[in-house]
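Re: folding output
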Amino acid sequence: MKMLINRIAASSAQPFILDDLKSHIRLSDDFDDAVITKMGYTAAAELEQFAQIALLTQTIRITIFDPDRDSGLWLPIGPVAADNLPIITFDGEVFTAFIFEAGNKPYIKWQMPYYDHHPSRITVEYQAGFGADAANIPHDLTQALMDQAALHYDSQSPMDARSLTTSPHRARAGARFRGVQL
């Protein structure tokens, strides 16, 4: 089984509030805004990748080649609202015989008609994320993003790979959403 994941942003909003991020880094001037913005986006991408989440609403498209015959499928990126059913196709044909469990770790449970099919490709498309703008992101994840961006700012041009690490807050908050027990 091989899985490809594609994220498509639903809005152009930033996953952080620039003034809040600058305040967290202890900057008041505007001369570094472009640099801070890039660091904010970098920290957001790292947090999304680590925690397997979408901070802002995104369309997630998963393509699975030669799928396993398991009883269900954990979707790789959450959170997903209960009223946001995924669209599933088997080799291009819509498939609706499934039960969907929403939440931070969304799950698709296949029903009996699934076992009558032998698709070579399954596509799942769904909306994931906390909302349309930074105000919808949970506070612990906002803090984790800002801590990680501050770490990037404080470690600009590190001399070696060990100089730039992960913020402890990003590790804790990201692990909670990922489902890791600490």
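--- second protein (sequence, then structure) ---
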Amino acid sequence: MSDSVSVSNDKTNKKTRNQFRRRTIARAGAVQALFQYEQSGDSVDQILLQFHQHRGGGHLDQFEEGKVPQADMLLLGQIFRKAALNQEKIDEELSEILPKEWSLRQIDSVLRAILRAALAELSDGLPAAITINEYMDVTHAFLSVEAARLANGVLETAALRRK
């Protein structure tokens, strides 16, 4: 009997891990979509359509090809849409948090996309620590340790300001 419980728990744990991985990949995808939005000038709907048609699905080894394999596409769309449609307000908040000598435009465009996505999601009811940890994982995947330190400081400050 204990073997069946152990097998059941293993399946449940694997399913839970896969769900979390899908959500983390969705966040990375939302960052990619925001980067594309800024660089291309395409509309939110055009970019979402491109992600659904050409970048979703696939296997994890295709991540480096610009795909977002196994991503929770609904979450990706929600984060991207919220960040893109509220970009002006998010950018104002970021400008208030950044050191005075730095303008938002001086920051690496990938880091800007990460911060925009994270700030869009910080107000969605998920505990701030979880949101920050998720975006720190994304930051470490894309950028340097120094950029991650800056991202962490900005996100911690944003979370404290929203309390």
